[in-house]
């Protein structure tokens, strides 16, 4: 959004596809009037005309520039309105805002990704960005948990495509809180698969994104395993409204999550009030 | 910085010159209070003596304004008319500095604030009649402006000492050479006497509230203090303290339909309100009033200094006057920081 004169004005975008991921989550593929380049982990404000805005991190690869995917769970006023929209409808997009994942700083490292529920959205953008430059990283271990098998986002990709990109370097571990007749994998919260990592913790970073309660216990688990606080990257969910560090809604201690985050390392925020609420 | 002397008679000429440059807002009397009003309405300027009852922020940051219209191709930015404010106290100037840092720094500026700020000429003054609620000296500033002004006035016998604080202020002097006379030693010693006297008054009344270290240091030990709960008892969540605060800059963006188009509006918001920080799905980092009450103090005296290096409280005392629950920020801080 650099160079834009009025940072509050959304860029018109056309919904070109709506993909139903789970009973409550859909991916909206939008084509903005002009390309909006972004880095994995940076977020955007999506406008539903007349209803308002809400913050979302794109779930598509940053290398795709003509369209952007937003994977959105129906949880509130704006997301409910988005879920009522269809192919051909217009939305608005502002951004990108905040700081994304520092991929360059992770060169040569072993990457652990821990995700839950719709938290898989930013993590897909990250995963795709990492795999597009896989030579830079030694390993990727992707641990993802959903409530039930029906709640797994990007199911086909995550179960069939991703494990085959480079089986020597990439490992995918899935778990569900509650199985069903089709489910043959692990049952339990995501921390139950964050074990026996086979990673060199001295040369590893961990990225966590998911519902607050899952982030909390995943973080505690990572600390217990021996990850330094500064190697744990958390995607903080706060009320990001302006996106530019001015409106005050997303404050976390002295940080404006929209500007200083949304990705923040645990060492910076562990002592701040109400980080998991 | 360069200083001049302007006689009372010449000052009237300066007012009419300034009026021709754009809008002119001046200090005047409203009942027993100082108010900032458009000069065209009051046709009168009084040397204020103390900060106006209202903060200056609405002149830069509107209570409610349209910030975008969509879908259109226009940027939606409007040029504003130049304006002058005569009557910014030292605390008000510090507040403008705080707003400047928030709205004009970082990767993105607020274009509406920037436009108005770039068109403003700000004339400060030395306080001569501090209120009993004034405590600027506890917030690292004095009751006389030392920076952040274009010009500053001190009322002395027969006229004003005028100090130049910026290039913009210098231009005013350049264009009114016949009005600005050299300030003499006598003028400057009169100014010094006023400054010392007023500083002493504010220091004396603030003494009992002085923290044992920096605000950051004392607040670092006070987060869990029971005094927060005791002091919030009379708070009715009206947010008057926040709306009247010269540095509070939180706002809400919301959209409305206008025919076949939509408008985005930006309106003052306040962290005292229950759902201020709530996210979709219902999580709320500060669901209890006491947490929101405490947040205001920490934002101003701990978080803001961590980011910008100075407090976002100016000691103007407006929140003390505005509070229907008679909550006095100085007393709250004294109680929570007593340890």
Fold blueprint:
The complex is a heterodimer of chains A (277) and B (339).
Chain A lengths: L10 E10 L4 E8 L10 E6 L3 E5 L11 E6 L3 H7 L6 E8 L12 E7 L3 H12 L7 E8 L8 H7 L8 E7 L9 E2 L16 E6 L2 H14 L6 E4 L15 E2 L2 E2 H4 L2 E3 H4 L8
Parallel strand pairs in A: 7-8, 7-11, 8-9, 9-10, 11-12
Antiparallel strand pairs in A: 1-2, 1-6, 2-5, 3-4, 3-6, 12-15, 13-14
Chain B lengths: L2 E5 H12 L3 E8 L2 E6 H4 L21 E7 L12 E6 L1 H15 L6 H8 L1 E6 L25 E6 L2 E6 L2 H9 L5 E2 L2 H22 L8 H6 L6 H6 L7 H4 L7 E8 L2 E8 L20 H20 L9 H5 L6 H8 L3
Parallel strand pairs in B: 2-5, 5-6, 6-7
Antiparallel strand pairs in B: 1-8, 1-9, 2-3, 4-11, 7-8, 10-11
What features would you describe in this structure?
- The complex is a heterodimer of chains A (277) and B (339).
- Chain A is an alpha/beta fold and 277 residues long.
- In chain A, 17% of the residues lie in helices and 30% in strands.
- Chain A has a 7-stranded mixed β-sheet, with helices on both faces. A 6-stranded antiparallel β-sheet of chain A has the order 4-3-6-1-2-5, with helices on one face. A two-stranded antiparallel sheet of chain A has the order 13-14.
- Chain A is globular and about 50 Å long.
- The two termini of chain A are 30 Å apart.
- The model of chain A has no long low-confidence stretch (mean pLDDT 96).
- Chain B has 2 domains: 3-207, no CATH class; 215-336, no CATH class.
- The two termini of chain B are 42 Å apart.
- The longest helix of chain B has 22 residues, at 185-206.
- Chain B has helices spanning 8-19, 39-42, 90-104, 111-118, 167-175, 185-206, 215-220, 227-232, 240-243, 289-308, 318-322, 329-336, and strands spanning 3-7, 23-30, 33-38, 64-70, 83-88, 120-125, 151-156, 159-164, 181-182, 251-258, 261-268.
- The interface between A and B is large, with 45 and 50 residues.
């Amino acid at each position: 959004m650099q160079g834009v004169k009025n940072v509050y004005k959304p860029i018109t975008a056309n919904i070109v596809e709506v993909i139903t991921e789970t009973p409550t989550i859909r991916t909206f593929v939008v084509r903005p009037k002009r390309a909006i380049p972004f880095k994995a982990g940076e977020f955007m404000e999506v406008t539903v005309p007349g209803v308002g805005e809400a913050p979302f991190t794109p779930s598509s690869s940053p290398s795709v520039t003509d369209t952007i995917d937003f994977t959105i769970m129906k949880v509130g006023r704006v997301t409910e309105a988005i879920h009522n929209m269809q192919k051909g409808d217009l939305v608005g997009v502002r951004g990108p805002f905040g700081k994304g994942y520092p991929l360059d700083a992770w060169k040569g490292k072993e990457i652990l990704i821990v995700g839950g529920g719709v938290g898989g959205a930013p993590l897909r953008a990250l995963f795709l960005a990492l795999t597009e430059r896989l030579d830079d990283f030694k390993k990727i271990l992707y641990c993802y948990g959903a409530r039930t098998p029906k709640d797994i986002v990007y199911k086909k990709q995550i179960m069939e495509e991703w494990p085959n990109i480079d089986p020597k370097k990439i490992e995918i571990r899935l778990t569900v809180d509650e199985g069903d007749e089709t489910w043959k994998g692990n049952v339990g919260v995501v921390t139950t698969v964050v074990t026996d990592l086979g990673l060199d913790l001295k040369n590893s970073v961990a990225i966590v994104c998911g519902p607050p309660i899952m982030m909390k216990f995943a973080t505690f688990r990572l600390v217990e395993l021996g990850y330094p606080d500064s190697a744990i990257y958390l995607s903080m969910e706060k009320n990001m409204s302006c996106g530019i560090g001015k409106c005050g809604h997303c404050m976390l201690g002295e940080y404006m999550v929209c500007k200083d985050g949304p990705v923040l390392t645990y060492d910076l925020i562990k002592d701040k009030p109400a980080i998991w609420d | 910085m360069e200083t001049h002397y302007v006689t009372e008679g010449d000052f009237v000429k300066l007012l009419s010159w300034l009026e021709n440059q754009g809008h002119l807002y001046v200090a005047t009397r409203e009942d027993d209070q100082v108010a900032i009003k458009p000069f065209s309405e009051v046709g009168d300027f009084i040397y204020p003596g103390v900060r106006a009852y209202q903060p200056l922020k609405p002149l830069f940051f509107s209570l409610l304004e349209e910030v975008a219209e969509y879908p259109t191709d226009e940027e939606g930015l409007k040029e504003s008319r130049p304006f002058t404010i005569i009557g910014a106290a030292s605390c008000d100037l510090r507040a403008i500095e705080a707003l400047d840092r928030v709205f004009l720094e970082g990767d993105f500026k607020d274009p509406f604030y920037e436009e108005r700020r770039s068109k403003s000429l700000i004339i400060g003054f030395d306080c001569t009649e501090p209120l009993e609620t004034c405590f600027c000296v506890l917030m690292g500033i004095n009751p006389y402006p030392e920076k952040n002004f274009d010009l500053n006035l001190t009322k002395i016998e027969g006229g004003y000492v005028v100090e130049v604080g910026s290039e913009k202020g210098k231009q005013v002097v350049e264009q009114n050479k016949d009005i600005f006379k050299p300030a003499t030693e006598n003028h400057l010693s009169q100014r010094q006497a006023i400054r010392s006297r007023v500083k002493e008054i504010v220091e004396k009344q603030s003494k009992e509230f002085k923290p044992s270290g920096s605000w950051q240091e004392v607040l670092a030990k006070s987060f869990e203090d029971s005094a927060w709960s005791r002091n919030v008892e009379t708070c009715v969540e009206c947010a008057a303290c926040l709306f009247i605060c010269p540095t509070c800059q939180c706002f809400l963006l919301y959209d409305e339909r206008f025919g076949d188009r939509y408008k985005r509006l930006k309106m003052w918001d306040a962290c005292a309100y229950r759902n201020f920080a709530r996210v979709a799905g219902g999580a709320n980092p500060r669901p209890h009033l006491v947490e929101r009450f405490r947040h205001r103090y920490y934002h101003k005296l701990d978080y803001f200094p961590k980011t910008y290096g100075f407090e976002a409280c100016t000691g103007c005392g407006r929140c003390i006057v505005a509070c229907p629950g008679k909550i006095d920020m100085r007393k709250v801080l004294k109680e929570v920081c007593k340890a």
